[in-house]
Amino acid sequence: MQTFADELQALRAQGLYRSMRVISGAQGSRVELDGRQVLLFCSNNYLGLADHPALKRAAVEGAALGAGSGASRLVSGTMDLHERLEARIAAFKGTEAALVFNSGYAANTGIISALVGRGDAIFSDRLNHASIVDGALLSRAGFHRYPHRDMDALERLLQEKGGKGRRLIVTDGVFSMDGDIAPLAKLVQLARRYDALVMVDDAHGSGVLGATGRGSGELCGVLDGIDVHMGTLGKGFGSFGAYAATSATIRDYLVNKARSFIFSTSLPPAVLAASIAALELVDSPEGARLRERLAANTALFKARLAASGFDTMGSQTQIVPIFVGPAKATMEFSGELLEQGLFVQGIRPPTVPAGSCRLRCTIMATHEPAELEQAADTIRRVGKKLGVV
Asked: What domains can be seen in the chain, in order of their start residue?
């Protein structure tokens, strides 16, 4: 029988072994990593709110209520801060109600496995996040995957599959490893035509995309056509946790059916208070300025990479992949960049398909133009050295 140690060694040999790097201090554009200062280009802290003074003040005030909530929401773990945050999320997304979950993974697995089951059908983009896939498998509903962003293929599946049960179309709003956006206008149109619910995981779009930061649904003009808005509070919002923004009926249904909600101790007051502060900030003139700066930073960085001949894989957002291909070459590229003071993670299977490994660069509003130029120049220099371009 193969031992765990043998399996780990096999991962190392294939260039698929993973380990954690330790950051000391706050999450800024520069961080102390393993004892030295580096430029940070792999954080999802898109608006730079993780160390924003307003969020830190709110967290301190929330902590005055205690370090934890003490129980799950349905026992004694619902505090007024939970309800205040949910009301604020619902107002932000323009829905009747919202429900907070402890993480994006918990939200996706809980929502999907509650809404559909045996005899029902799920239609999922092939590049959806792993938590969506796991939620679909937990649900035991029929699971039908369509090629990435292919609405003709989705329509064929809707015509051929699903029977008489519930139908759920689920997609990432922004695809986290590619940086492109789901064709939500067409997807919503198909859902209405074929009597399906629409769920959008907008973890990487909420707070960032759209005229007011409402996310990919706002950007695509279909915010009110989405039945379940799933989003996280730990990326653009700089805090922690996740949510479903939806109708009052579906919210009540999830309270009674979503196992990851029912059987988890609820989020602590410091996190809830920080999340409320983040929503207020995103809705403020400062939030608008941060989104504008993020867009300008992204355009600058992409232009520098394009001038060097890199393939950024059709990215439409602040997530900027750089195609490499083989896993070992990707990790060599990432390691060499770190030696040069640039922290960019290599992405390998099972996160992406074999042969499509890439560096995943992420831009923040708090990056200075000089830092973006320095990063692009370092990537160009190392990429030429390794023969990537």
From this structure: 20-51+285-386 (3.90.1150.10), 53-282 (3.40.640.10)
